[in-house]
Protein backbone atom coordinates (compact mmCIF):
# COMPACT_ATOMS: atom_id res chain seq x y z
CA UNK A 1 0.00 0.00 0.00
CA UNK A 2 1.12 3.50 -0.76
CA UNK A 3 1.10 6.24 1.86
CA UNK A 4 1.51 9.91 0.98
CA UNK A 5 2.85 12.39 3.52
CA UNK A 6 2.72 16.07 2.57
CA UNK A 7 4.81 18.38 4.74
CA UNK A 8 4.36 22.16 4.57
CA UNK A 9 5.84 25.08 6.47
CA UNK A 10 3.41 26.30 9.11
CA UNK A 11 1.45 29.37 7.97
CA UNK A 12 3.36 31.65 10.34
CA UNK A 13 6.73 30.43 9.04
CA UNK A 14 8.38 32.35 6.21
CA UNK A 15 8.83 30.32 3.07
CA UNK A 16 11.57 31.95 0.99
CA UNK A 17 11.49 29.26 -1.69
CA UNK A 18 7.78 29.71 -2.26
CA UNK A 19 8.10 33.48 -2.14
CA UNK A 20 10.85 33.36 -4.74
CA UNK A 21 8.62 31.45 -7.13
CA UNK A 22 5.65 33.72 -6.46
CA UNK A 23 7.80 36.79 -7.02
CA UNK A 24 9.35 35.50 -10.24
CA UNK A 25 6.17 34.46 -12.04
CA UNK A 26 4.91 37.97 -12.89
CA UNK A 27 8.34 38.93 -14.22
CA UNK A 28 8.20 35.84 -16.42
CA UNK A 29 4.82 36.79 -17.81
CA UNK A 30 2.55 34.68 -15.63
CA UNK A 31 -0.04 36.68 -13.76
CA UNK A 32 -2.78 35.64 -11.37
CA UNK A 33 -0.75 33.46 -8.99
CA UNK A 34 -1.13 35.28 -5.69
CA UNK A 35 0.83 32.98 -3.39
CA UNK A 36 3.11 29.95 -3.55
CA UNK A 37 4.13 27.75 -0.65
CA UNK A 38 6.70 24.99 -1.04
CA UNK A 39 6.86 21.86 1.03
CA UNK A 40 7.82 18.23 0.75
CA UNK A 41 5.94 15.28 -0.68
CA UNK A 42 6.81 11.76 0.48
CA UNK A 43 5.55 8.53 -1.05
CA UNK A 44 6.02 5.47 1.16
CA UNK A 45 5.39 1.87 0.23
CA UNK A 46 4.29 0.05 3.35
CA UNK A 47 3.11 -3.46 4.06
CA UNK A 48 -0.09 -4.33 5.89
CA UNK A 49 1.61 -4.54 9.28
CA UNK A 50 2.11 -0.78 9.42
CA UNK A 51 -0.78 0.80 11.29
CA UNK A 52 -1.90 4.40 11.37
CA UNK A 53 -0.25 5.06 14.72
CA UNK A 54 3.10 3.94 13.35
CA UNK A 55 2.66 6.11 10.27
CA UNK A 56 1.89 9.09 12.49
CA UNK A 57 5.09 8.50 14.46
CA UNK A 58 7.17 8.19 11.30
CA UNK A 59 5.74 11.38 9.84
CA UNK A 60 6.16 13.42 12.99
CA UNK A 61 9.54 12.05 13.92
CA UNK A 62 11.37 11.66 10.64
CA UNK A 63 9.59 13.35 7.75
CA UNK A 64 8.51 16.63 9.34
CA UNK A 65 9.93 19.09 11.82
CA UNK A 66 7.04 19.70 14.23
CA UNK A 67 8.45 23.04 15.30
CA UNK A 68 8.12 24.66 11.91
CA UNK A 69 6.10 22.28 9.76
CA UNK A 70 2.65 20.75 9.56
CA UNK A 71 1.84 17.54 7.70
CA UNK A 72 -0.86 15.24 6.46
CA UNK A 73 -0.76 11.46 6.16
CA UNK A 74 -3.07 9.59 3.81
CA UNK A 75 -3.25 6.10 2.39
CA UNK A 76 -3.83 5.93 -1.35
CA UNK A 77 -4.55 3.11 -3.75
CA UNK A 78 -1.47 2.15 -5.67
CA UNK B 1 -8.61 28.75 -5.82
CA UNK B 2 -5.86 26.50 -4.61
CA UNK B 3 -3.72 24.44 -6.95
CA UNK B 4 -1.48 21.64 -5.76
CA UNK B 5 1.57 20.57 -7.75
CA UNK B 6 3.40 17.47 -6.61
CA UNK B 7 6.85 16.94 -8.07
CA UNK B 8 8.64 13.61 -7.76
CA UNK B 9 11.91 12.25 -9.08
CA UNK B 10 11.31 10.02 -12.10
CA UNK B 11 11.29 6.31 -11.21
CA UNK B 12 14.65 5.73 -12.92
CA UNK B 13 16.28 8.58 -11.00
CA UNK B 14 18.06 7.80 -7.77
CA UNK B 15 16.55 9.48 -4.73
CA UNK B 16 19.19 9.60 -1.99
CA UNK B 17 16.97 11.54 0.41
CA UNK B 18 14.21 8.98 0.18
CA UNK B 19 16.68 6.13 0.38
CA UNK B 20 18.20 7.64 3.50
CA UNK B 21 14.83 7.72 5.21
CA UNK B 22 13.97 4.20 4.07
CA UNK B 23 17.30 2.92 5.31
CA UNK B 24 17.06 4.62 8.67
CA UNK B 25 13.57 3.51 9.67
CA UNK B 26 14.43 -0.13 10.45
CA UNK B 27 17.39 0.98 12.56
CA UNK B 28 15.00 3.26 14.45
CA UNK B 29 12.61 0.41 15.15
CA UNK B 30 10.06 0.98 12.38
CA UNK B 31 9.60 -2.01 10.15
CA UNK B 32 7.37 -2.60 7.16
CA UNK B 33 8.22 0.49 5.12
CA UNK B 34 9.69 -0.96 1.96
CA UNK B 35 10.39 2.21 -0.01
CA UNK B 36 10.40 5.97 0.43
CA UNK B 37 10.57 8.58 -2.34
CA UNK B 38 10.88 12.26 -1.57
CA UNK B 39 9.67 15.05 -3.77
CA UNK B 40 8.25 18.53 -3.56
CA UNK B 41 4.74 19.75 -2.80
CA UNK B 42 3.65 23.20 -3.98
CA UNK B 43 0.45 24.97 -3.00
CA UNK B 44 -0.47 27.88 -5.25
CA UNK B 45 -3.26 30.37 -4.75
CA UNK B 46 -4.51 31.43 -8.15
CA UNK B 47 -7.32 33.63 -9.33
CA UNK B 48 -9.92 32.63 -11.88
CA UNK B 49 -7.97 34.02 -14.83
CA UNK B 50 -5.36 31.26 -14.59
CA UNK B 51 -6.31 28.43 -16.94
CA UNK B 52 -5.07 24.87 -17.01
CA UNK B 53 -2.67 25.53 -19.85
CA UNK B 54 -0.99 28.27 -17.87
CA UNK B 55 -0.75 26.05 -14.82
CA UNK B 56 0.86 23.34 -16.94
CA UNK B 57 3.46 25.81 -18.20
CA UNK B 58 4.22 27.05 -14.70
CA UNK B 59 4.63 23.54 -13.35
CA UNK B 60 6.83 22.33 -16.19
CA UNK B 61 8.89 25.47 -16.44
CA UNK B 62 9.39 26.62 -12.89
CA UNK B 63 8.34 24.02 -10.35
CA UNK B 64 9.74 20.84 -11.88
CA UNK B 65 12.84 19.83 -13.80
CA UNK B 66 11.43 17.84 -16.73
CA UNK B 67 14.72 16.02 -17.25
CA UNK B 68 14.66 14.27 -13.90
CA UNK B 69 11.22 14.87 -12.40
CA UNK B 70 7.59 14.12 -13.07
CA UNK B 71 4.68 16.12 -11.68
CA UNK B 72 0.96 16.34 -11.25
CA UNK B 73 -1.21 19.44 -11.19
CA UNK B 74 -4.62 19.46 -9.54
CA UNK B 75 -7.09 22.07 -8.43
CA UNK B 76 -8.47 21.61 -4.95
CA UNK B 77 -11.19 23.28 -2.93
CA UNK B 78 -9.70 25.67 -0.44
Distance between the termini of chain A: 6 Å
For this entry, what is the oligomeric state of its chains?
homodimer
**Helix count, DSSP H or I runs of 4 or more residues of chain A:** 2
Secondary-structure element series of chain A: EHEHE
Q: Taking Cα atoms only, what radius of gyration of chain A do you get, to the nearest Å? A: 16 Å
Indicate the low-confidence ranges of chain A by residue numbers: none
CATH architecture of chain A: 2-Layer Sandwich
Largest interface pair: A-B, 34 and 34 residues
Can you count the beta strands of chain A?
3
Taken from the alpha-carbon principal axes, the silhouette of chain A is elongated
Number of domains of chain A: 1
- Major sheet description of chain A: 3 strands, antiparallel
> Fraction of residues of chain A in helices?
25-40%
CATH superfamily of chain A: Phosphoribosylformylglycinamidine synthase subunit PurS
The CATH topology of chain A is given as: Mth169, Chain: A
Share of residues in strands of chain A: 35-45%
- Mean pLDDT across all amino acids of chain A: 96
Pathway (chains A, B): Purine metabolism; IMP biosynthesis via de novo pathway; 5-amino-1-(5-phospho-D-ribosyl)imidazole from N(2)-formyl-N(1)-(5-phospho-D-ribosyl)glycinamide: step 1/2
Subunit structure (chains A, B): Part of the FGAM synthase complex composed of 1 PurL, 1 PurQ and 2 PurS subunits.
Enzyme class (chains A, B): ligase
Subcellular location (chains A, B): Cytoplasm
